[in-house]
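Predict the holo structure. Ligand: zinc ion.
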Amino acid sequence: MANPQVLLADLNAGRCSNVAEVRLLRYWEARNVRKGGELMSVDMLFVDENSTLTQGSVSANRQLRFRKRLSEGSLYTLTGFDVTRSNTNFRLCDAPFSIRFNEGTSLEKITASARPIPTELFRFMPYGRLLELANTGKQLPDIIGELSAIRSTITDRIAGAQRVMLTLRLESGENVCVSMFDSLALAFHTKFDSYGREPKVIIATGVNPKIVGGRLFLNATSSTHLYFDSETAAGKKLFDTLPGHGAVPGESTSKVVHAQKIEPMTLSELNQFIITAESQIIEFLCTAKVTGIQQDEGWCYIGCSGCSKKLVREISSFTCLSCNETNAVAALRYRVALSVSDNTDTASFLAFDTEMAKLTNLQASEAAQIVGIGVDAQVDTELPQSLADIVGKTYTFQLKLNDFNFSSKHQTFTISRIFPERVLAPMPAFVVTEDGTVPADAQAGDLPHGTIGNVGITSTGADKPTTSDASTGKRPPPAKDQDDDDKTAPKKAHVE
Ligand SMILES: [Zn+2]
């Protein structure tokens, strides 16, 4: 005899042997980014005749049994599963309980149901609600809007730089930015390329609202699915309201803005990138104003005159570990932490000797003297006027992000080059005006690479300190930074 039916809203914690008749709306893989992307589970979203949304999950070791049966949009009978309390964070539905597949779970596809089960269900939220949810990690709402811009680094196929930003105009008029990184960015482009034309309406499900630098970003998550134009009834409804159903005769303006190979970013985008993207080595351009010199760790260190690495203080000498020299000749080197800001956010940038010497036209050894040797060495660390003078000026910085930038403890970005403002940087990037158009200077094409070297200041990457700040006796920089630098920084980076 068949087990009795159960509605999703009536589920109670424990094992359920009743039968739920549901539609599988979406499924996706949940991976652990901290364990090399290891598959944790296949998660899914069900809906029943009462439009109750409920999340389901099958663990990695069981998912193969069910995987081939999963078909988005299909109807199923589901029985013999565990009912557990829903996670209170990153919610895709409001149901208090979730479904977990166990070894006895039966999931059978059915071709039709006597029950009118919705074919789609989205959790669109008004702009004000998105703002309320931002940075809370509580809800992953769905979003629908008219596409006004696509910015992407993926068309360049740069390894590790997959990034797509969609600007969507909500029906209420606000513009929001949906950002996708790495595999999600790839998935977008796969769909985009196969679609054959540029969509006018995009639905993105399960996005995580975040406010960075005063701007609302909707970050795609592993649960994010994208639907174009009339692929959904909700999308079609909006699509049909657009002038000429979105296909204005004679209109051929592409919404795609190709990004530069080394991409300009605002500070808020940079700060957001290190929070949301997977760890990677990547370079960006950032135009920002120097608002101050951070002096709590000094502006210089005692380096090796040969290799510029930080010297170890001995009783009556300096040792350079890098040169294996126990009687190294000392030279004062810049290590300057800059407070910077643009109109989106603030950040800390770290500049080393080569860049600072060129920027100020003054060697560190001309700005201050090392008096004494070894443990007795002293340096007048009062801020030189040449450094104080750069406060208030705006430059375009090329920043190299290493893995350690993606851990929250390392929010200082190392400068690899400094350019005069706007010599090469079409800024600001990823900015959309009130009416949803992209400013002309944000649409500049690829920068000829050779021009960078002509105006830029090049870092050899060899003047990074290695041990404690000898000039001030302050604590050493975290050792991991240096390890990463040594592994990843070419000895003569960016000489063009
Ligand atoms: Zn040395």
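The longest strand covers residues 20-32. The domain at 127-258 is CATH 2.40.50.140 (OB fold (Dihydrolipoamide Acetyltransferase, E2P)).
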